[in-house]
Amino acid sequence: MNATLIEQLNDEFSLAGNNNSLHFNIGEGGLPVVNVENVHANSTISLQGAHILSWIPKGEEEVIWLSEEASFATGKSVRGGVPICWPWFGPYNSTDDASSNFPAHGFARTVNWHVLSTEALANGSTRISFTTLPDEDTKAMWPANTTVQLKVTVGKKLELELITHNDSTQPITIGQAFHTYFRIGDIANTKIHGLDDTDYLDKVDNLKRKVQHGPVCIDGEVDRIYLDTTSDCVIEDKALKRNIIIIKCGSHSTVVWNPWQEVADKMGDLGTDGYKQMLCVESSNAAEDEVTIQPGKAHQLWVQYAVQRA
Questions:
Q1: Which fold has domain 2-186+249-309?
Q2: DSSP-derived secondary structure for 207-236
Q3: pLDDT at 97
Q4: Active site amino acids
């Protein structure tokens, strides 16, 4: 089945230029992936979850962290990469018993996404657009008439745009995030700039509201939702001698997460000492920043990642 699908996708959407190629293949666990290579970067994206597994700008090391113990299986989320949290962030907020088994962070990261278009851009970048098609399972979790589209632009910079259209006659409220795992050299030698003087909810400390002072440094478990922030963030990675610059739009919250050793050991798929080489800085609409979309309207969550040598 996947071989036939791969052939169909390549017939319709592959790009075969000398400096800008895009091809579909069967990846780990038999899951379809799209491989992109252009003058600026290489990237691999799984069609399950429209999940970015790799982005390597030319002349640079891998920017996206993927666990050595990541499991690739139908309907299962992958540890690492860029999972898409949608249409809710965190646990499903309901007292209804029927929803008690709804997956954390929504279902977008585990369903198959469909390719809408591919394009070789004039600047040498590559753009691929995805959408989801509702089925019985997703309609049970999200009955609202909603269209969601993801545009991924692979180049010297990596751009992601998640567009949610409310096609129903009633307002809808969504939570969402690009749950991006960044690859770093050493968590103990890393700082996050751009969140100074920002309030945050500390999930490690019973969601107490606190204020950030100075850069964010990680020396234990961190799970925070920074509130009312639209600022650019910079991950200062002294070990790899580079900065990762995060610019966003359509988001007023930023999630910072590293499980540290004790929690990582319990998770089972983070790999030996994996927590030391990963850091999640997530552009989101979470907690107080959930978005209400009026009928016939849309919301765009956009983010751009770039690497700068220190």
A1: Beta-galactosidase; Chain A, domain 5 (2.70.98)
A2: TEEEE--SSEE-SS-EEEEEES----EEEE
A3: 52
A4: 179, 282
